[in-house]
């Protein structure tokens, strides 16, 4: 699932039918509510922020992105695991896997790469709109097949 | 391993017990925080608003939100996450925990819909077992079996008794080495 920065579902794809069947409307609702919960979790952070100043960082120009608290990264339930990756621009990538699936982190980064290559560089794609892009679909298919 | 806070919600969406351990004192806030962290403050939502305010002033983890607001937010969050999990995974699926870059939230729900929530740092394995034990060994023993405690606990009445508090402290001290 890919959720745009305003909380709309822009891409949704099922690979294995392990989870219960949901209508596309249900997915839209889920994406929207997840967007809200993500915002709340980043507000709730009980720990004081630790500034990430390391010797290497000092050499570089200050990052244009403030050190914001992150929202949900991983959510676990007894049947599945939901990994969330938020890009700097606020787009969220959600990946639902089995609880024991390894390397979900790298998988989600790879999906982001595919997204950057085939969706963002597509001149006919308008941002914040549902993704209809054959190459992205095929790229995902190939990537998942290699993995699974 | 750092414990941030612990909450119990009853089935009427009310927070009946909450307890916070002040985070490690930072260099900016002085001796007042340090003395506080040695003796964790606890409040059962109704009892003391003053300590809660004090806490806010010294260690304010997020601006503009009181602890009561926090409790409501956490309840709402856990409630909707639970609904989302049952929607995705089927009715026999249960929500266990989530992790952000800063903290991790552990969740346990009893068959009577009481919710036990604990916030810790991110490097902790799942605490569901421990939350279950808190319910079975401490809550049931000291709160449910207490003849003086009311059936329901509006505003946390009857939960924050001395035995429960001390038991909780001892249990957490024993199973979660700091």
TrEMBL record, chain A:
It is found in: Endoplasmic reticulum; Golgi apparatus, cis-Golgi network; Golgi apparatus. CDD domains: TRAPPC4_synbindin. Its main location: endoplasmic reticulum. Keywords: Endoplasmic reticulum, ER-Golgi transport, Golgi apparatus, Transport. InterPro entries: Longin-like_dom_sf, TRAPPC. The keyword RNA-binding does not apply. It comes from the Eukaryota. GO terms for cellular component: endoplasmic reticulum; Golgi apparatus; TRAPP complex. The keyword Nucleotide-binding does not apply. Belongs to the TRAPP small subunits family. TRAPPC4 subfamily. Part of the multisubunit transport protein particle (TRAPP) complex. This is Trafficking protein particle complex subunit. It comes from Ascochyta lentis.
TrEMBL record, chain B:
The keyword Endoplasmic reticulum applies. Its main location: endoplasmic reticulum. It comes from Didymella heteroderae. Keywords: Endoplasmic reticulum, ER-Golgi transport, Golgi apparatus, Transport. InterPro entries: Longin-like_dom_sf, TRAPPC. GO terms for cellular component: endoplasmic reticulum; Golgi apparatus; TRAPP complex. The lineage of its organism: Eukaryota, Fungi, Dikarya, Ascomycota, Pezizomycotina. It is found in: Endoplasmic reticulum; Golgi apparatus, cis-Golgi network. This is Trafficking protein particle complex subunit. It comes from the Eukaryota. Residues 22-65 are annotated as: Disordered. GO terms for biological process: endoplasmic reticulum to Golgi vesicle-mediated transport. Belongs to the TRAPP small subunits family. BET5 subfamily. Part of the multisubunit transport protein particle (TRAPP) complex. Residues 22-60 have a biased composition (Low complexity).
């Amino acid at each position: 699932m890919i959720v745009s920065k305003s909380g709309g579902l822009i891409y949704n794809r099922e690979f294995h039918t392990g989870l219960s069947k949901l209508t596309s409307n249900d997915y839209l609702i889920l994406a929207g509510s997840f967007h809200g919960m993500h915002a709340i979790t980043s507000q709730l952070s009980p720990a004081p922020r630790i500034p990430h100043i390391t010797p290497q960082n000092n050499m570089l120009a200050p990052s244009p992105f403030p050190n914001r608290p992150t929202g949900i990264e991983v959510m676990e339930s007894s049947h599945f695991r939901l990994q969330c990756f938020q890009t700097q621009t606020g787009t969220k990538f959600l990946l639902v896997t089995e609880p024991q699936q390894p390397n979900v982190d790298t998988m989600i980064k790879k999906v982001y790469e595919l997204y950057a290559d085939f969706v963002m560089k597509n001149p006919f794609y308008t941002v914040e709109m549902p993704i209809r892009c054959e190459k992205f679909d095929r790229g995902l298919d190939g990537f998942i097949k290699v993995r699974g | 391993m750092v414990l941030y806070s612990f909450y119990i919600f009853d089935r009427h969406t009310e927070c009946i017990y909450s307890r916070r351990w002040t985070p490690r004192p930072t260099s900016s806030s002085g001796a007042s925080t340090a003395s506080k962290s040695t003796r964790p403050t606890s409040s059962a939502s109704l009892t003391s608003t003053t300590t809660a305010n004090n806490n806010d002033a010294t260690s304010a983890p997020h601006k503009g939100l009181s602890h009561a607001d926090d409790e409501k937010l956490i309840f709402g969050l856990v409630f909707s996450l639970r609904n989302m999990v049952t929607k995705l995974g089927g009715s026999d699926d249960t929500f266990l925990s989530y992790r952000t870059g800063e903290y991790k939230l552990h969740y346990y729900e009893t068959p009577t819909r009481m919710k036990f929530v604990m916030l810790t740092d991110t490097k902790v394995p799942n605490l569901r077992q421990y939350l279950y034990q808190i319910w079975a060994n401490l809550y049931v023993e000291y709160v449910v079996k207490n003849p003086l405690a009311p059936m329901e606990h509006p505003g946390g009445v009857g939960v924050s008794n001395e035995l429960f508090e001390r038991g909780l402290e001892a249990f957490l001290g024993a199973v979660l080495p700091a």
